[in-house]
Structure formats: structure tokens, C-alpha cells
Amino acid sequence: MTDPQVWISILEQGCFYGLIGLAYLLGLEGTGFFNFAVGSYALVAALMTSWLVSEHGYGVWPALILAVLVAMALAALTELAVVRTIEAKFQHGELPSLVAVAALLFAISQVAGMVFGRVTMPGEPFYSFTPIAVGSAYLTPAVVGVVGVAVVAFAGVSITARTTAFGRALRAVGDNKEASRILGLPVGRVRLIAFAVSGLVAALAGIAYSSQAGVSWDVGLQWALLGFLALVVGGAGSWFGPLVGGILLGFVQEIIELYAGGQDVDYAMLGIALVFFAFWPKGLTSRAVRA
Amino acid sequence: MASKRPGLAKAGGLLLALCLSLAAAACGSSGGTGTASADSAQTSGPALKGKPIIIGMDSDSTGPASSYNPLITQGVQGAIAYVNAHGGVLGRPLKLFLTNSQSNPAEGPAVYNDMITHGAVAAIGAPVGPIQQAKQIIQNAKLLTIATQATDTSLLTPPSGYLYMIAPTSTTYADAFCAAFKAIHATRIALFHDNSPGVLTVANASIPVYEKCGVTFVDQESAPVTQTDFTAIAARIKASHPRAIYTISVGGSFQAASETAFYQAMPNVQRFTLGAWPSQPAAWKAAAPGSLNGSVVIDTIDPENPRTKAVANMLAPYLPSSWTMSQYAADGYDALMLISEAIKKAGGTAEPALNAAFQTIQNFPTTFGQPSSTLSFSATKNSGSNGACSLVLKEFNANNTLTQDWGTFQPSC
């Protein structure tokens, strides 16, 4: 554990898991349920950026902006066309919406594979530079990108939620949609914006993280599961909960790999999930994640 | 609520339109064009009369092997287009019946039955697991089947009278790497692999073979194929002080990230790779700049083999403009040409004459491997490889590209 590269990896992995968890939390706050499709928004943004740059000669930033807009559009359409429709039809229970967005995760991943190809695409960093040596460790563009996005996203969302009318409306809508509607809050618009921002966060996370080792069409599910686990562990009581959970997951992952080997990491993640679901469903920050 | 439904319906229509337009864009992409090119080439040559000869193929286009199986399909499609544009086989056109088992062994019986039901007289199987489960069906139907990616001769345990392999066997690969390790006086090797089923089988089967040739595995590490951070694993391998690292993987992000981590942690330790990595130039770019420099891979494509270049030029007009030759395309092409050769020798597609004719094919020059690489079959030889010269050791340069043979050692027949 004295190897600084290990700590840098913990920070990078933790920030990425935390960002996907934050994308979940934005949707959870706005609608009260888990949008598993966030993994596919991250995937589409990362793949599309790489595809536009490497196959069509776009500059990194135009490709990135276009890809982020597409991911945000997908997120907004998820709320409009899937969640809202199903909630209107099935007045009680969240299960139909959960099933629908889970199916959407698979559908978007398969379409992404058809459109962008089923090969690994190289990721595109926000800014390319030769890895910076820090003692015996290296700071790569991916590390700087993921950590930078995490700092901006978590700070931005937290400040917005505390200090703006939209932030107050988001919390109100998430707590009680009907009461918010009666009070005249624009429930539909608040939910739509929450989903779009969730898509934005997921997209930036996916693009930043994929610059480390590329991206392929089939990683959306894994990203979705790890982000969900980060939220479960960190809890939904604070906007920083997913970041706490993500860093803890990153720490456990690196420790297990370092002392027991890579083949045991999946078992460790399963163990963490079981422990928190069974004994600590509220996560590390106070609000209950499960009803 | 009712007044909002038209808005919801409009949004639903937008989402549906977005998904359909993305799917339509996919149909216009290079994968779809490959099939269309083969079909259009089928009709662009001299008019072929006679009933089409159906060749069945199982190729994983959506599952774990989807990063390279479609490359095999393109080789087969290009070969079919070329054959049909040059008179077909016995004056009859070839037609491909494509199935997708998604590398799921449980789907094997269904996909091979599907081929048989649709009149296939021979089959090309890319994923190996489904073939294993379908062996009895293949035997009962007397379906001449070539397993293009099989390297483990345990596939050929009975029933296998109609089942053939064309790739070098795992023993051949192991012998080549053993000799490579000896060439650099490396006996302390760290073994690293992903946990995909095919790679696990190869890795576990390899260990006793390498140990017999004097190699000591000072560390063995593995990770899920979806993992992309290897800092801790690199630290563990470094602590074992290996002379070389031997990676077996399906390539992709897994290999790009692991090569980067190993290069950063151990820049002076020689790296060797077995797997799909040499055929994934898009994935090479995902590795950190310069991190692949000096890394040695085993490939079956030798750019100096005149047949490789000739076949690439032959197939190019029938495949998308972005297509490039790879070991997988070469495998697909050779498999189709072997079947064509057998049909010509048999004078038709009836069994058991077709199978008997296949077993008389000797010294078939391969599109892959070194210029002297050939395949031979007989009633007692279902694995066609005639030696290690079907393999080439290549080295990455500082630009993370594979352009040169490894100057230190090359396998011979």
C-alpha cells in the first residue's frame, strides 16, 4: 500500500463509480426510483466521442459536446417516453418502470454496438498530455479528467441543490410528487431537468474514464452496477454519498487485488453488496436507499 | 393528465424514431455492407446456374467473441463472393447461411440443427463451445464442419468423424513460446490472463506444457475481462521479479489497460501475448503512447507471406473499403476454400464422399502463417496444421503499431 500508484488508482476508480452513483442520485431525487440506464448514457457518450474522432476526423471537443448532447437527449427521452408513460399507466409500484429502464440499458447497449461497432474504441481525453511522473507514480490524462469531472460535478450539484430554487424544487418533487404538484411546482419540468443533468454527469464520467483504456459496447451494464453499488454503499443522504461509496469500493477493489489477486475482486464486490443490503441499507450517509 | 397524453405519445414517438434511426445507421455501417457486397458480387459475375450450395456458419456477432468473429465472417463472405464471381463450384453458386450462437455452448445444437434444416452441406464454426455441444448432431447429420478457432485437440475426441481444425494447436503455440522464452534466456515468467471461459481453458492447459520446457511461473494473476485498472496486479507481478510477462487474453480494453500498467511498473520486463490482441489495431490506440514498444505477440499473419498479400488483394473488391486482412479473415477464407476444394474433388456435395474427399487434401497452402505453412488432412488427422511455421512472432514499435517480425526468434516447421 505504499505504492502511490495504487492510491491514485483508488481515487480514479472511486471518482468514476461515484459519478455514476451521482447520476443515479439525480434521477432518484427527481423521481424516487433508480434509473439503471445511466450506465448506457455513459457508454454512448464515450463510444460516440471516440467514433466521431477516430472514424470521422472530428476534433475532440466538438465530438465530446455532440456526444454529451446525445446522452442528455437519451436521458430526457427516458423520462418522457418511458418513466412518465409507465408511471401514468401503472399508478402503483415502481417495478414496471424499473423493468423498463433495465430493458432500455440493454437496448441502448446493443444499438450502440450496432452503430459504433463491437470493437474496443480508444478513449479521448479532454486534454492530451504525457503522463506526469509524481515520484514512482504517474498522473495520466484519464486520472486528471475523472477527478476533475468529479470535483466539478459534486460541487456543482451540491451547491445548486442547496442554493437555487431548482434545487429546492428537486428535493420537493422527489419527496412528494403530488404535494409538489398541488403547490404549483413544475413537476414535469423538474424531473426532466434532473434526468438531463443525470445524463450529463454520466456522459462526462464515461468520456473521462474511457480515455484510460478505451471503451467497448458491452461495458454499460458493469458501469451501471458499480455506480449503483457506490450509491448503496455511500447512501443517498448527502450529494457526496456516492463519492464516499465509490472511493470505498475503489479502496476495497485495490486492496483485494493487491493482497489476494484479481480473481477475487468479483467476490469482494458481491460481499460488499450483500453486507450493505442486508445490514446497512441506508448506506454510509443517513437516508434509506431502500424502502 | 389526459391532455398531457398527446405530448407523451409524441415523446414516445421521438424515442422510437431515435432508436430506429440509430439502427438504420447501423444497417448502413460497414458490418452490413460486407454481407451486401458478398450478395451483390454473387450476381455480378458470370451467371451461375444450378442450385446454390449452402454453407452454414456460426459466428458470434453479439456475444463475448463479437470483437473478432465478424472478421472471420468477412473472410468467408469475401471468399464466397470471389468464388461466385469466378464460376462458382462445379458451376453452382455458394450461399452462406449465417447463425449466431453468441458463443453460448447451450445454443450449439440449435444453431447446427438450423444449418442442417436449411440445407447446409458443410459448416464453418467460429466459436468453439457450441461445436463441442453439437458434435453428435454434426456426426449424425454427416455435416463436414471446420472449427476455425479451435486450438485444443480435445475437441477432436469422438464423435468427430466430420469435424476438423485448421488453426495451430495449443501445443504448437506453447512450443513456439517455449522456444521464444529460451531465446531470451527467460525461465522466470509471470502468467497473466483474463477469466473468459476460452482463455481460462487455454491458460490452464498451457501451464504443464510450459513447465515441461523449463519455465517457472513465478506468479499467476487473472482478472475479469471487463476490468480496466491493473495497478495492483502490476504491483503483485513486479514483486515476483519475473524475467518476462506472458499474457493470454481476448484483448480489447483489458489488454490495453494491462499493457499500460505493466509498462509503467516494469518498463524493462519483456512482455509476450497470446490472444486476439494482434488483430485489434483499434484497441492498440487505447494503450498509453509508447507502452506497447517491444511487446511481442504471436500472430498467424505474416505480411511477408506472398499468399497473404495476394488473397488480401483478391478479397478487397468484395469487402468494405475499410476492411484489412487479419488472421481471422485468413481463417475464414481458408476454411471456405478447403470446403470448395473438397466439393470439387468429390464432384458433388453428397456424403460420405465429400468427407472422404476432404480427407485427401494435402499440403494446402494457407493464407496465414509463414510462406511454408500448409494444412493436410486424412482419416486419422483431423487437425490440419503441419507445424509451427503457421505462427509468426511480431513486435510492437514505439508508435504502438505492429509492423515488424521479432528479430530475436521465429518458429519453424
Summarize the structure in words.
The complex is a heterodimer of chains A (291) and B (413). Chain A has 291 residues and is mainly alpha-helical. Chain A has one domain (4-279): Orthogonal Bundle (ABC transporter involved in vitamin B12 uptake, BtuC). Helices cover 74% and strands 2% of the residues of chain A. Chain A has helices spanning 4-31, 38-56, 60-89, 95-116, 141-163, 165-175, 177-182, 187-213, 220-234, 241-260, 265-279, and strands spanning 132-134, 137-139. In chain A, strands 1-2 form a two-stranded antiparallel sheet. Chain A is globular and about 60 Å long. The mean pLDDT of chain A is 88. Chain B has 413 residues and is an alpha/beta fold. Chain B folds into 2 domains: 32-168 and 305-382, 3-Layer(aba) Sandwich (Rossmann fold), CATH 3.40.50; 171-299 and 392-405, Rossmann fold (3-Layer(aba) Sandwich), CATH 3.40.50.2300. Chain B has 13 helices and 14 strands. Chain B has helices at 5-27, 30-44, 69-85, 108-117, 128-141, 170-183, 197-212, 231-239, 252-265, 281-284, 306-315, 327-346, 353-358; strands at residues 53-58, 94-99, 120-125, 144-147, 163-165, 188-194, 216-223, 244-249, 270-275, 296-299, 364-365, 374-375, 392-396, 402-405. Chain B has a 7-stranded mixed β-sheet with strand order 7-6-8-9-10-13-14, sandwiched between helices. In chain B, a hairpin with a 5-residue loop joins strand 13 and strand 14 (402-405). The model of chain B is unreliable at 1-44 (pLDDT under 50). The interface between A and B is large, with 55 and 57 residues.
